[in-house]
Amino acid sequence: MRGWQLASFALFFGLWELAGRWPVSAAFPPFSAAFLALVEMLRDGSLLKAYLITLQPLALGIVLCAVAGIGFGIGMGLSRSVEWLSLPIFIILQAAPMAAIIPLITYIYGIGLTSKVLAVIMLAAPVIVMNSYKGIRNTPPSLLQMCRSFQGTRRQEVMKIVLPHAAGLIFTGLRLGLAMGFIGIVIAELLITPTGIGDLITYNSSVADYPKMFAAIASIVALAAIALYLLERLERRWFP
Fold first, then answer.
1. What is the pLDDT of residues 99-122, one digit of tens each?
2. Angle at the Cα of 101 (from 99 to 103), degrees rounded to 5?
3. pLDDT, tens only, 133-151
4. Domains of the chain in sequence order
5. Contact 55, 120 (CB under 8 A)
6. Which of 132, 108, 124 is CA-nearest to residue 61?
7. d(C-alpha 182, C-alpha 228), whole Å
8. Among 3, 153, 231, 233, who pairs with 175 as Cys (CB 3.0-4.6 Å)?
9. At what angle do helices 80-95 and 70-78 cross, to 10 degrees?
């Protein structure tokens, strides 16, 4: 399995190198040039400085979504009133075009940290909330009936059956929410104000330094992929 994974990476980077040397476009550098640009940005510290700026609103947004989103999803799953009140809102947020809403957030909250955190929350929260809600709602009725037949209280029903059964889907929601959070922070830094990794992308694009631009894009994709892979491994261990 590991050999096939390494082969797929080698094939991808090899095709990238060939496409860059063809060339497909003057703005499409070969993999070797992008890799050297990545090494240069690591050496001069510009990439690290960019990520120190980018990861702050991303971490804040994901933590807020994890705490409030899971709580809200559990509340929706356990209470019909909360479900009727909140479910349409999160369905709309899932379908809403975020690239069109982010400029509205900027108009209301400015171009600071608050706007970027809100951009992360608006993309990540619906996924986390809906997965938590579905995890609670998908509890097998037979388990609930068994608990009631043994005179189990509502609290015991929730703590010993509903939440343990929903834990796997809730964790999946966190993993998918993190993926949406990466998308949200990149969109925010490209549309709100060029800072962090978004600044590296837009600046190098404006000065036609395409190897550095592709290196910055590849770095955020690689970071997101590694984070999601580690969470997936953790999910498989905790919820086999």
1. 677 777 777 777 777 888 888 888
2. 85
3. 888 888 888 877 887 778 7
4. 50-193 (1.10.3720.10)
5. no
6. 124
7. 10
8. 231
9. 130
- Rounded to whole angstroms, how far apart are CA atoms 188 and 48? 19
Residue 158, burial from CB neighbour count under 10 angstroms (0-12, 13-18, 19+): buried
Give the C-alpha distances (Å, rounded to integers) separating 191 from 56, 106, 157, 218: 17, 9, 46, 19
Residue with tokens 């059964």: 165
At which residue do the structure tokens 């290196």 appear?
215
Q: How far apart are CA 201 and CA 162, in angstroms?
A: 45
Binned at pLDDT 50, 70 and 90, residue 7 comes out as: confident
